[in-house]
Amino acid sequence: MGRAFEFRKGRKMKRWAAMAKTFTRIGKDIVMAVKEGGPNPEANSRLRAVIQNAKAANMPKDNVERAIKNATNKDTANYKEILFEGYAPHGIAILIETASDNNNRTVANIRSYFNKCNGTMGTQGSVEFMFDHTCNFRIPKEGLDAEELELELIDFGAEEVFEDEDGILIYAPFNSFGTIQKELENRNIEILSSGFERIPQITKKLSAAEVADVEKLIEKIEEDDDVMNVYHTMEENEEE
């Protein structure tokens, strides 16, 4: 298996954000999708993908419909996606994806987390190059063979296709998202969820004490309402 498989396996061992925060993040995704491409999922592929993710997260249909309706209101906050970069203690690179309606607040908060936890906030481009920006799709495994599907989807940009207990996962470069989404829809293959991830090209193994130092910073960052995802170059410990 490749790096996407190992990355996914490691991420699954970690704690996930509370359901309330998951719904908040999906709500922001809906607003950004509607502002970008309109409220009709049939004509807005990004919104279609967010609705699939909402369903996968068991977000009530009423909440989704209300979020779409609210997003069309011109008074609704317009979230801007901002990427922050820096270093945690012990040389671990940190990449933070945020969606904020107040850039000054978000910058101040992220900087304070680095300062309080002996990290260093970096400049644009200082660590982003250490991560591969990927897209992924999760589809049902019934009636499909992962190896066969991988061969068929290579021409559409797929790099890794593998099976786990949740279904079949497809990984590809970030810019292949629309092409693969369209091909799966053309084949009438149900997309259970989809998204984007940043996979570290290399990881660093730390001692238990050093891991605790890095986790302290990551936890502070993840608690921030503006933060959508946090990625790092620390080697994941499956025993955690």
UniProtKB/TrEMBL annotation:
Domain TACO1/YebC-like second and third: 79-234
SUPFAM superfamilies reported in the protein's UniProt record: YebC-like
MF GO annotations: DNA binding
Keyword Ribonucleoprotein assigned: no
Ranges for domain TACO1/YebC-like N-terminal: 4-73
Listed Pfam families: TACO1_YebC_N, Transcrip_reg
Superkingdom of the organism of origin: Bacteria
Key words, A-Z: Cytoplasm, DNA-binding, Transcription, Transcription regulation
Keyword set includes Lyase: no
Localization (cell): Cytoplasm
UniProt family annotation: Belongs to the TACO1 family.
Protein name in the entry: Probable transcriptional regulatory protein AAGV28_08400
Species of origin: Flavobacterium zubiriense
